[in-house]
Amino acid sequence: MGAELAGRLRQRLRFEKLRPAPDGSGGRGDSWVPVAEVWGELRPLGHGALSVAAAETRLTSRRWQIVVREGLALDLGMQVRWRGIRLRLTGIAQDPATPDRMTLLAEELGPQG
């Protein structure tokens, strides 16, 4: 890994996976469990094309590009927690020209809940 990449990874990210769990009364009490905590770089990509009306407010989802070191076992069912914000992974790419890193796309879900 080049020094230029190491200097860009300044944000602490926690990747989480959904763990389904029955609640004992026929329902589910799913929870998010941490699977990795790493340093990464985030860049805003703008707002998504879709927006929804909630009460009298129009909400749009903000999209992010995330760069992390190669080697994480990630899938699109995961979420990322960063500075009190939840992000849903929507894309995972690894470019052969830059084998030391993975580029991820994520959509903002809102504050941690």
Output the keywords.
single chain, 113 residues, mainly beta, Thrombin, subunit H, 6-stranded antiparallel barrel, 1 helix, 6 strands, globular
Plain-language structure description:
It is a single chain. By secondary structure, this protein is mainly beta. It has one domain: Bacteriophage SPP1 head-tail adaptor protein (Thrombin, subunit H, Beta Barrel). 5% of the residues lie in helices and 63% in strands. It contains one helix and six strands; from the N terminus they run αββββββ. The chain has one helix spanning 3-8; strands at residues 11-19, 31-54, 57-69, 78-82, 85-93, 101-111. Strands 1-2-3-6-5-4 form a six-stranded antiparallel β-barrel. The longest helix is centred in the first third of the chain and has 6 residues, at 3-8.
Short summary:
The chain is mainly beta. The chain has one helix at 3-8, and strands at residues 11-19, 31-54, 57-69, 78-82, 85-93, 101-111. The chain has a six-stranded antiparallel beta barrel with strand order 1-2-3-6-5-4.
**What is the number of independent domains?**
1
> Helicity, in percent?
under 10%
Report the uncertain regions: none
Distance between the termini: 35 Å
What is the 3D shape? globular
CATH homologous superfamily classification: Bacteriophage SPP1 head-tail adaptor protein
The tally of strands reads 6
Ordered list of secondary-structure elements with their pairings:
Elements: H1 3-8, E1 11-19, E2 31-54, E3 57-69, E4 78-82, E5 85-93, E6 101-111
Antiparallel strand pairs: 1-2, 1-4, 2-3, 3-6, 4-5, 5-6
